[in-house]
Specification:
Blueprint lengths: L5 H8 L1 E4 L5 E4 L2 E4 L5 H10 L9 E4 L16 H17 L2 E3 L9 H7 L8 E4 L13 E4 L2 H10 L1 E4 L3 E8 L8 H12 L7 E6 L1 H4 L3 H9 L8 E4 L3 H8 L2 H4 L4 H8 L12 E6 L6 E3 L7 E3 L14 H11 L14 E4 L1 H4 L2 H11 L9 E4 L4 H9 L2 H7 L25 E4 L14 E4 L2 H10 L12
Parallel strand pairs: 3-4, 3-6, 4-5, 6-7, 9-10, 9-12, 10-11, 15-16, 15-17, 17-18
Antiparallel strand pairs: 1-2, 2-8, 13-14
Helix pairs in contact: 2-5, 6-8, 14-16, 14-17
């Protein structure tokens, strides 16, 4: 029997049929939707006079456009309010489960899917959102789709896709103190570039990946798209099973034990081949920070911004990025003033991220000139942070725990970064204007964000870990 990769095992088992010319009709086990990319899809169904084919396979939540304070009040922005209300109406009409703004299960789609037990190993998952690859941490094939494809899945529970190539990225060794899963993926992207995995689906492997918690694995898989990959996944193991076992809705299922047995086979066979293999040493990874306008423009926090060489690929792009950021080649970033700090998003809005940030700032004080947005990824994360007293630790240090939502990850809500201001952000994208027109974003880990919030400037978190 020919050895198969984990990706091939899942993909091949979900192919309904192959279209002449190479495309596959792929069955989708779980479909997530939110208020931004679903309205046109529902309008398409109405225009065709057809229902949602399997509404029980779709879950909706409001996350992108919602405020993170005063969620009990009507949404102020008319466009945002209309999109959220439209999602509510569409879900009622088509019989889709919907976690509205004040529902106890509300939150960012890629946070609530795993924590509520909708994300299951060996399945296929799609959402009209780039960072659907987050769910790959559970040994799933998960990827973002466009609005027309959202309509396709609503109508048929299938999607037409070309099978991508496969790349295995292996990270071996132990991380240094102060280095986090976010630093792992920022390091990988900085080495491979923002387009280095285009056309591939990534499997992350190696001892450093296996040592990560599920939250850490989700952070790594979340940013697969930022190097051009279609998605990323990690084989299941005891860490996966323990996480799932702690979800009551799953652990109480009568078939849970049999599911666990089937999930144990979700790994790449020995001898299976990939189209490409890349290996990294975890021991050399340092706290990372970006300096440009795509996630590939990143470096260790103690390095200098690279020079612009005439023969360097992307020299024009780099020059433009540095001009936008107000930086220059050979510049070191530590000591540079910070205006905003954002902890949250589907990349770093889980309880583990809030714990890391809170424990770092405990006994310290927020720099008065810094505006900090500390945003849990879901209502459940918010409640857990309160139950653990993290809100009190944050408050004593001068921070406020806000309510859940995508928040300052993107400029679709009230949590925008003003033009010209610098934000150290734990989110996933630093594109021009991503956090607000003219805003300047530096991607980093929760620890690096915490260090910036305390000092008011870009700071190597390792300098404060022993203080």
């Amino acid at each position: 029997m020919t050895p198969k990769t984990l990706f091939d095992k899942i993909w091949d088992s979900h192919v309904v049929r192959t279209i002449e010319g190479g495309s596959d009709v792929l069955y989708i086990d779980q479909h997530f939707i939110h208020e931004v990319t679903s309205p046109q899809a529902f309008d398409g169904l109405r225009a065709r006079g057809i229902p949602v084919f399997r509404p029980a396979k779709t879950l909706a939540t409001a996350d992108h456009n919602i405020p993170t304070i005063d969620q009990d009040l009507p949404i102020k922005d008319e466009l945002s309010r209309n999109q959220v209300e439209t999602l509510n109406e569409n879900c009622k009409k088509f019989g889709i489960e919907y976690f509205s703004l004040n529902h106890p299960n509300n939150g960012i789609v890629h946070v609530i899917g795993p924590e509520l037990g909708y994300t299951l190993p060996g399945t296929t998952i799609v959402c009209g959102d780039s960072h659907t690859s987050t769910h790959g941490a559970f040994g799933t094939i998960a990827f973002g789709i466009g609005t027309s494809e959202v309509e396709m899945v609503l109508a048929s529970q299938c999607i037409l896709q070309n099978k991508p190539k496969k790349i295995r990225i292996t990270v071996n060794g132990e991380l240094q103190k102060g280095v986090t899963p976010k630093d792992i993926i920022l390091h990988i992207i900085s080495q491979m570039s923002s387009g280095g995995a285009t056309g591939y689906f990534v499997e992350y492997a190696g001892s450093a990946i296996e040592a990560l918690s599920m939250e850490g694995r989700m952070t790594v898989c979340n940013m697969s798209i930022e190097m051009g990959a279609r998605g990323g996944l990690i084989a299941t193991d005891l860490t996966t099973f323990e996480y799932l076992n702690n979800i009551p809705s799953l652990a109480n299922r009568p078939d849970f034990k049999s599911l666990l047995l089937s999930w144990r086979n979700l790994k790449t066979d020995e001898g299976a081949s990939f189209d490409r293999e890349v290996v990294f040493d975890a021991g050399i990874i340092k706290p990372m920070i970006t300096y440009g306008t795509n996630p590939g423009m990143g470096m260790a926090i103690d390095e200098v911004i690279p020079r612009i060489n005439n023969d360097r690929e992307g020299a024009v792009t780099l020059a433009k990025a540095l001009d936008y950021m107000g930086f220059r080649p050979d510049m070191k970033l530590p000591g540079h003033q910070v205006d905003y700090v954002f902890l949250g998003s589907c990349t770093n809005g889980r309880i583990e991220d809030l714990r890391a940030f809170a424990h770092f700032v405990k006994g310290k004080k927020k720099a008065p000139e810094v505006t900090a947005l500390i945003v849990p990824g879901s209502k459940r994360v918010e409640q857990q942070a309160i139950d653990e007293g993290l809100d009190k630790i944050l408050s004593e240090a001068g921070f406020e725990l806000r309510q859940p939502g995508c928040s300052s990850c993107l400029a679709m809500n009230e949590d925008r970064i003003p033009a010209g201001k610098y934000a150290v952000s734990t989110s996933n994208r630093n594109f021009e204007g991503r956090q607000g027109p003219g805003s300047r974003t530096l991607l980093a880990s929760p620890l690096t964000a915490a260090a910036a919030a305390i000092t008011g400037k870009i700071t190597d978190p390792r300098d404060l870990l022993n203080n």
